[in-house]
Known about the structure:
Layout: H1 2-23, E1 26-28, E2 31-33, H2 39-43, H3 50-59, H4 62-65, E3 71-76, H5 78-82, H6 88-92, H7 98-106, E4 109-111, H8 116-125, E5 130-133, E6 139-144, E7 150-153, E8 159-169, E9 172-177
Parallel strand pairs: 3-9
Antiparallel strand pairs: 1-2, 3-4, 5-6, 6-7, 7-8, 8-9
Helix pairs in contact: 3-7
Amino acid sequence: MRKLTYALTLSATLIAAGAAHAEDTVMVGGQSMYPSKDIVDNAVNSADHTTLVAAVKAAGLVETLKGKGPFTVFAPTNAAFAKLPAGTVETLVKPENKATLTKILTYHVVPGRYGYAKLESAIKQGNGKAELPTASGGKLAFTQNGPHNIAVTDEGGHSANISTYDVSQSNGVINVIDTVLMPK
């Protein structure tokens, strides 16, 4: 009887721990994103971000994005990259275009942690618009675009919607976007 009670208690504890752990994750690209992993280690598991991961590798930014941070990455999906003119991605990942690719990718990175609540607060404080500096030296503009929807606009006026917010990472946060943003 004592063994049965112990087994049931252990099972209940494991189930509760698994449920609590599942609550801490967000599904992106069909996979759980774990707050204990860094930006790169989570992104490589997302089926929706294979193009972004390949571009990060081609630009030599893996170690940077595995760094301490904190970083906020506005992560374009494969579908976002597919919106670019034909051949753009293939051209950008060539070694001779590494500087351009690096500038584009670091334009999607903002120093600090900016989840939905912090972005919304910044927009309210800015009377409907917030601007944040990117790691590439540019700026991204943020506006409220309906209830619980924030749009991100690049310096050329192109907008992306954030489709998934607050994907916590050990070194920052990822917000998934539907369009590739371009620096000046």
